[in-house]
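Input record, target 12 of the design panel.
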């Protein structure tokens, strides 16, 4: 679609939504006269402005460009425009679904530019997925627990993870299972989200949770994907959902984070009191609630002990009985971690002179001027930075910095090198 056709479509969608040019401009970071130029085909939108316009107008970037729709993007646009498929609604859900939609849009825009690094599933992970998705459905709690333990064990064995506590779950999902992962603040009420359809898989987790809760959310959302949950969109908003599917995902997450044999080894026959609880929470980096539930599930404690132990103040336990030299699973206030595959794709595209700073601002959820100066010298030999408006940034408030370091491999090289470089900027979660 040419600039005039796109501008006409934008004007039609804007008028249908009841927005003025000024109101649309506020969503895009543009003045009214700039919006008018867009609608008359005089000015083209850049990548980030296109994604923001699609979100504001309740459509997709592909539609604005006159391209065939993607099923995943259509679903994301529908979620942003209204209620989610499982009946969840409200502003708390809007933040996470809106962000998921934006990430999917950015992924497709990078693809259109020929700069997208495709997601990859490792051979061992493919074997795990095939086994997990052949599991029969069962409403039995005992069966869900057995399947969870078996799947967790197969995953650890296939990927050579041993029985020690897992490191970065986001890294595990991205490197082995081809799942994009973002951790960011999405407000109260929503802990996480899994979106998967065909080759697209995306997990979002809320960093406003404690560190232990955040880890369990990541493991839980990954379990939904591994098990081939038939729902394309799964939102953890505390409103219920399919009890059987949630029970299976909980079992996989618990066994993945806390292998029973390793749990019993650390307990070493001791009575489960405050000191042991604090030690286990720090060792596995889990919340008190998930730990106590799992201890009961694998019969280290009786079910009658579960609630009294779970009712203890978790933060006080760690402060009084934990090791001050180890991470505190009750800590809060985590930063933003964008999907590293998308960040690496954008970084390579910028160094090849294909995009400006706006796409980094969209990925990091910060204003363009916060990244523009750092990216100014981050261009490969022979490439030049793309011009961008300094006032088009939009997104959530967050403190983050663009990746820095040696030049990544050019497109066609090893994508893991780019991801390694991007990963170096962010602490493991």
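The sequence produced for target 12 reads:
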């Amino acid at each position: 679609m040419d600039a005039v056709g796109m501008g006409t479509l934008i004007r039609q969608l804007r008028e249908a939504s009841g927005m003025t040019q000024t109101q649309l401009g506020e969503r895009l970071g543009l003045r009214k006269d700039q919006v008018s130029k867009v609608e008359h085909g005089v000015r083209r939108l850049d990548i980030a402005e296109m994604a923001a316009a699609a979100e504001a107008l309740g459509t997709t970037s592909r539609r604005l460009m006159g391209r065939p729709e993607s099923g995943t993007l259509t679903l994301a646009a529908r979620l942003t425009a209204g209620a989610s498929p499982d009946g969840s609604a409200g502003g708390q859900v809007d933040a996470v679904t809106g962000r998921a939609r934006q990430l999917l849009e950015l992924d497709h825009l990078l693809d259109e530019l020929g700069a997208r690094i495709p997601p990859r599933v490792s051979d061992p992970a493919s074997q795990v997925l095939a086994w997990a998705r052949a599991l029969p459905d069962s409403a039995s709690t005992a069966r869900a627990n057995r399947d969870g333990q078996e799947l967790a064990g197969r995953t650890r064995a296939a990927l050579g993870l041993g029985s020690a506590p897992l490191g970065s779950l986001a890294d595990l999902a991205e490197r082995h299972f081809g799942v994009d992962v973002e951790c960011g603040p999405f407000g109260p009420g929503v802990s996480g989200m899994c979106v998967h359809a065909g080759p697209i898989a995306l997990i979002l987790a809320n960093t406003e949770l404690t560190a232990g809760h955040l880890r369990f959310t990541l493991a839980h959302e990954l379990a939904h994907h591994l098990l081939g949950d038939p729902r394309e969109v799964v939102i953890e908003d505390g409103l219920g959902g399919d009890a059987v599917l949630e029970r299976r995902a909980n079992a996989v997450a618990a066994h993945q984070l806390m292998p029973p044999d390793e749990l019993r080894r650390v307990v070493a026959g001791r009575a489960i009191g405050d000191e042991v609880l604090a030690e286990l929470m720090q060792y596995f980096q889990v919340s008190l609630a998930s730990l106590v539930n799992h201890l009961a599930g694998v019969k280290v404690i009786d079910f009658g002990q579960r609630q009294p132990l779970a009712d203890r103040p978790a933060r006080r336990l760690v402060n009084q009985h934990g090791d001050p030299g180890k991470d505190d699973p009750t800590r809060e206030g985590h930063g933003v971690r964008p999907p590293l595959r998308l960040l690496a794709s954008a970084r390579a595209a910028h160094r090849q002179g294909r995009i400006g700073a706006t796409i980094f601002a969209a990925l990091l959820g910060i204003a363009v001027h916060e990244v523009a100066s750092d990216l100014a010298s981050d261009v490969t030999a022979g490439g030049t930075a793309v011009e961008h408006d300094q006032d088009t940034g939009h997104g959530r408030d967050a403190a983050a910095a663009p990746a820095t370091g040696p030049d990544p491999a050019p497109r066609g090289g090893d994508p893991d090198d780019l991801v390694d470089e991007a990963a170096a900027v962010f602490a493991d979660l």
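The beta strands are 180-184, 192-197, 200-206, 233-236.
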